[in-house]
Amino acid sequence: MINDVEMLNYILQNAEMGCHGIKNVRKGVKSSTAVDSVLCEQLVRYGKIYHVASSMLRSRGAEVRHISPVAKTMTKIAAQRDLHRDPSPSHAAEMMIKGNTMGVNKMVQRLRDYDRNDRNVTLLAKKMIDTEEEHIKEMRAFI
Asked: How far apart are CA 90 and CA 35, in angstroms?
């Protein structure tokens, strides 16, 4: 079973990866495109979840565990490679959908393993899932 601190760190890392992925994809798409505007909105949503998870961890006196530098680098390289090959907004949207789908699947698995001792942690995890599912719907408009 996963405890509150582990679940909060996982939520934080999921939001952090979302922010990192968006920043990397935005570098490869034109800032004047509609997809870039939606990505900016999504970045704000991830940032809010990240800050809530961080605050909840600090209030428990727990350490914040960030995603690894290796994971960040791999994400950056993959985004650069994929967008160099096809910088179209539809391809960027497809990349984001894949990342969000992976995030939803992993978060659902973690939520299933969570001991659910804290209702607020459970609600934040569900908010993360709902946010990523909303992001998928938004990106579908660009495919």
From this structure: 8
55 pLDDT band, cuts 50/70/90, is very high
> Residue 124 and residue 133: Cα distance in Å, rounded?
14
Q: What is the rounded CA–CA span in Å between residue 40 and residue 123?
A: 24
Within the chain, residue ranges assigned H as helices are 4-28, 34-59, 69-85, 89-113, 119-140
Residues 6+ apart with CB under 8 A from 108: 129
Whole-angstrom distance, CA of residue 131 vs CA of residue 64: 21
Q: What domains are there in the chain, each with its CATH number?
A: 4-140 (1.20.1260.10)
What gap in Å lies between CA 36 and CA 41, rounded to an integer?
9
CB 19 within 8 A of CB 39: no
Identify the CA nearest to 23 among candidates 39, 34, 12, 41: 39
Q: What is the pLDDT of residues 61-92, one digit of tens each?
A: 999 999 999 999 999 999 999 999 998 999 99
